[in-house]
User: What shape does this take?
Amino acid sequence: MNDSETTTRPAAHFSLALLHAAQNVGDRLEGALNELGLSMAKQSALTQLAEAGEPLTLSELASRLSCVRSNITQLVDRLEGDGLVRRVDDPQDRRSVRAELTQVGMEKQRAGARAMASVQDELSKLLSGTDMSALENALEAFG
Amino acid sequence: MNDSETTTRPAAHFSLALLHAAQNVGDRLEGALNELGLSMAKQSALTQLAEAGEPLTLSELASRLSCVRSNITQLVDRLEGDGLVRRVDDPQDRRSVRAELTQVGMEKQRAGARAMASVQDELSKLLSGTDMSALENALEAFG
DNA sequence: CCTGTATTATACATACATGAACGACTCGGA
DNA sequence: TCCGAGTCGTTCATGTATGTATAATACAGG
Assistant: This one.
């Protein structure tokens, strides 16, 4: 008589709790980045380019960000519109287009990284040391 | 887009690990629901309606799903297109529109809940009992 | 040299999320 | 009774994500 079997599974779900926690954390990171005119998507792309140290093809960027190429086409459009990145032709393979950080892009990336680190510090205060290491261990199981 | 390493030296950051894990978990849930023609967004809405046991105004649904009203307008459009939900006028307040589950919608919701429970069982095998309880405890800190 | 196959970026349709603006409606006072 | 403030759902613009299709290019083998 009880549909709570199928509608609600109250206690068992670490997976929904995980999604919920991720949403809160994501919102806070997003909020901090928004003040810089950035988003998680933009910051992630800028960071990949900064870490690579050289222009990356859009396919390579898609691969590093674990998303489809058509997404990167649009994201780079927006980053280019913001003046943070520019498209450069690849002389080795004329099918390819590489995304290159501009000076402004490099500076934004660093500002974004600082903003994220600051949010992270703030969040870590919510956890005791033991909870934090338990969390890190448990999350490893999901690759 | 998801992703993993974002900042300059990310290795120790539980928040990015959490986002990454959440993405993996979300993808698996999404994948299971897709086979039923559902998505997380749709299933969440159906479940709120099922749990309520009566038609809800779109504002109430937005509140329960923690999202803005305009999002619900679109989501209910899609659910209505799928025949899972119908809009009914609220006689008490003519500004309001209520979303009501159809028979098919009720059945879909139950099928979706079963699919999600199955994924969850599968995921829980990746964690030891102690890791799982540690994870649940840690996640509580994020509300 | 051609030709088939793979890969590149892009365009397009779609799904899901936000926020701003808007018309319709409710309701507490003046 | 009217009026202003607030709430309702919708529309629109935009950002982020997917998948499909397509044109240009690369490249291996015949």
Summary: Helices of chain B lie at 14-34, 40-52, 58-64, 69-81, 103-124, 129-140.
